Amino acid sequence: QVQLVESGGGLVQAGGSLRLSCAASGSIFGINAMSWYRQAPGKQRELVAVITSGGTTNYVDSVKGRFTISRDNAYNTVYLQMNSLKPEDTAVYYCNADDPDVNKRAWGQGTQVTVSS
Questions:
Q1: Dihedral angle at the C-alpha atoms of 81, 85, 91, 92, nearest 10 degrees?
Q2: 5 with 107: CB under 8 angstroms?
Q3: Buried-exposed string 50-76: b where 16+ CB fall within 10 A, e elsewhere
Q4: Which residues face 72 on adjacent strands?
C-alpha cells in the first residue's frame, strides 16, 4: 500500500514562497490522481490542487496563478510550489493519492504552513 510523507512546510511572511513535497513509499506511476488539500483551524478540509496521471491539473480559484502542482514519477514525489503566499493560506497541508485500486489510496500526515502578515 502506498504511504505518503509531506515536508517543506514552515513559517513565511506574506508574499513569500514555499515548496511542499510529498514522497510516496511506492510508485505513483499510474495513480489516477495526486492532490494537495488543506485544513485551516475551524474549517473543513478543502481541495487545493490536483494532478492526474496524464498530467492534467486543476486548482481551487483562490490559489490559481500562485500555486503549481507537479509530479515526478521517477522519484515518486508530488510537489506544490506556493508563491505570493497570503495569511489566508495558513493551514495544515495534506497530500492525497486517489485511485480505483484501494491499495493506491492514501493520506499523508500533513505539514503546517503559516503565513504571517
A1: 20
A2: no
A3: bbeeeeeeebeeebeeebbbebeeeeb
A4: 77
pLDDT in tens, 71-116: 998 889 999 999 999 999 999 999 999 999 888 899 999 999 999 9
Which residues lie across from 101 on neighbouring strands?
none
Read off the C-alpha cell for 54: 496524464
Cα dist. 114→11, 17, 34, 71, 91 in Å? 5, 11, 23, 24, 7
Over residues 30-79, the pLDDT tens digits come to 889 999 999 999 999 999 999 999 999 999 999 999 999 999 988 899 99
Length of the chain: 117
The pLDDT value recorded for residue 103 is: 87
- Exposed (0-12), middle (13-18) or buried (19+): which is 86, by Cβ within 10 Å? middle
Q: How far, in Å, CA of 8 to CA of 112, rounded?
A: 9
In this structure, what C-alpha cell is assigned to residue 75?
A: 522519484
- With a CB cutoff of 8 Å and minimum separation 6, the contacts of 44 are none
Cell of 76: 515518486
